[in-house]
Amino acid sequence: MANVVVVGSQWGDEGKGKIVDWLSEQADVVVRFQGGHNAGHTLVIGDNVYKLSLLPSGIVRGKLSVIGNGVVLDPRAFVAEVKKLKEQGVSVTPEALRIAENTPLILSLHQDLDRLRESATDGTKIGTTGRGIGPAYEDKVGRRAIRLMDLADLSALRPKIARLLNHHNALRRGTGQSEIDPEALYQELADIAPQVLPFMDDVGALLDKERKAGSRILFEGAQGALLDIDHGTYPYVTSSNTVAGQAAVGSGLGPGALDYVLGITKAYTTRVGEGPFPTELTDETGRLIGERGREFGTVTGRARRCGWFDAALVRQTIRTSGITGIALTKLDILDGFETIKVCVRYELDGREIDYLPASQAAQARVKPIYEEIEGWRETTAKARSWADLPAQAIKYVRRIEELIGAPVAVLSTSPDRDDTILVQNPFQV
């Protein structure tokens, strides 16, 4: 039995919710290993729709769920999401959910700083959700973060708050903001502590025990690999590593615990926020894809930018995440197009290249080189076997496999979890 890592192979929003839910039903343990409550997963189970931002998807399936140390945790958002799930009939108990003791916390001051930077007029707008994720990771790397375990020893918390505020109050003074009162921050943390501390655990040891006992572990990524802080379209990226290797680092296990990497890949391309997007369509076709695909963010409600499938980008993600196979989603959105374009490489300053360069300036200058593929008139929606698909749709899928250098393990043809064509079960490699 394999342990599986699920990552988005584009800029996120690839339809991970459905695939992760399908896999979590087979898993024993589900782990979130990076990001914060800026990521959204929509799960449709029967007549119930669950919108999760922080909690692992397995929580609605009654599976042991884990928030790893690679996540930054907003304790107020956590409490609010637990309450919302309870209202939908899902009880989140310490027996069902564990949070790494060394998980850094997102505080209100992080959100203040995030929003302040996004409202600046100096050209640094990144397009963040304003939820404090970036500043919280900065404090983690700066070795001044307040971590979950710190709430268990309130007597030692004040000196840590003072160290944190030495940094943040200087920033606030420099931007004309009022300083944070250390006692107010202490009280904020002391008040929330009893609501989150019962979930605290040494999750690295917990997961190692589960692995040795033969449990199936599903590592659930947020965002997409092209938003990775190292390997994404910097600086228009998130603040954590989103590639598959982070599943080990962000959960307290070694890389040997990762057996299969499933890359969730949309049959076209979307992006939220700022940054380069070589295949973006700003015409009627792009609008039509967005409407058909209901391309609006789960967390923010922002309309997503839409474009043709970019094989050059996905090839890079397959390399940086070591993707074993892909789950191709939303094929049905392309039904009815006379021709469909796929970007196979780029033109940069008069020469052809087969990768997206790391330079921000070069990324802005690349032009997509397209291959045109004949479309299909028949519907692919709700197909559950290859026999249900139009021949030309199968050709499109096969051509994508050739261009990206990875097989399609799962094909999704609607948001309904049963409308799935399984080629290879990642848990059974």
TrEMBL record:
GO biological process: 'de novo' AMP biosynthetic process; IMP metabolic process
EC numbers: 6.3.4.4
Catalytic EC class: ligase
Active site: 13 (proton acceptor), 41 (proton donor), 140
Keyword GTP-binding among UniProt keywords: yes
Subunit comment: Homodimer.
Protein name stated in the entry: Adenylosuccinate synthetase
Source species: Labrys okinawensis
